[in-house]
Amino acid sequence: EQRRADSDLYRERVQATALGILTLLGIDADPLTSREHVLIANIFDNAWQQGQDLDVAGLIRAIQKPPFESVGVLDVESFFPAKDRTGLAMQLNNLLAAPGFAAWMQGEPLDAGRLLFTDTGKPRVSVMSIAHLGDRERMFFVSTLLSEIVSWMRTQPGSTSLRAILYMDEIFGYLPPIANPPSKTLFLTLLKQARAFGLGLVLSTQNPVDLDYKALSNIGTWMIGRLQTERDKARVMEGLEGAAAGGAFDRAQMERILAGLGKRIFLMHNVHEDHPAVFTTRWTLSY
């Protein structure tokens, strides 16, 4: 019901789901021009509008025999001939039949509410490791998780206090400045809207160049360590200026501070404070 009530969320969910599946198949799909994306998005839309869930097996059958006769003004056969649809269905079937795919069908359901809170409503920590996955599988999982979090977020009442935190240890590749992977649109939505629902984001990276700093300008608190190259410094300065949003920003002072940072010394820039702060981390012990 929520998906139908919120048309923007619904469209985002349909597009993100279709794009995530195609990414898993290794198909670089543009939502506007890719017939694979258009077909799969229409299949999900058709099922969800009828209140039906659609698993991978059901998607394969629907690709072979779509539950509608036309896409736009073209009949299905003209838009995407049966022979080509069979090829797409075979790719998805091979993925489903692969021994490693069975692990995706096991474990806890991907339910944001259950990941963030216990059955009694107590907040809890859920850790999801994707280090063992390939690039395609990582993008699919991250996009699916972010889509679920956005959906959960939109069902929550507005809040001026922190309700939950989403922390991602390395966002390199998920929020690039030029490319548009499935994760990017979802991150943009969260960066713009999450705070209104009491959802905080903590995003970190060791690759400061390959980030969309226009998107990150929505972030209020920056913690920056020692930067290795002038290119890194230039990109970070671009992001800090964007975050200032026309407010007071002393670029020369910020450059001097960044240039003087040593190991385990960080600059904290809070858009709500008049001046940046420099701090040192505590020693940590590993056993």
Automatic annotation (TrEMBL):
Q: Which InterPro entries match?
A: P-loop_NTPase (IPR027417), T4SS_component (IPR051162)
What are the record keywords, sorted?
A: ATP-binding, Nucleotide-binding
Which GO terms fall under molecular function for this chain's record? ATP binding
**SUPFAM superfamilies, per database record:** P-loop containing nucleoside triphosphate hydrolases
Looking up PANTHER family in the UniProt record yields: SLR6007 PROTEIN, UNCHARACTERIZED PROTEIN YJGR-RELATED
Question: What is this protein identified as?
Answer: ATP-binding protein
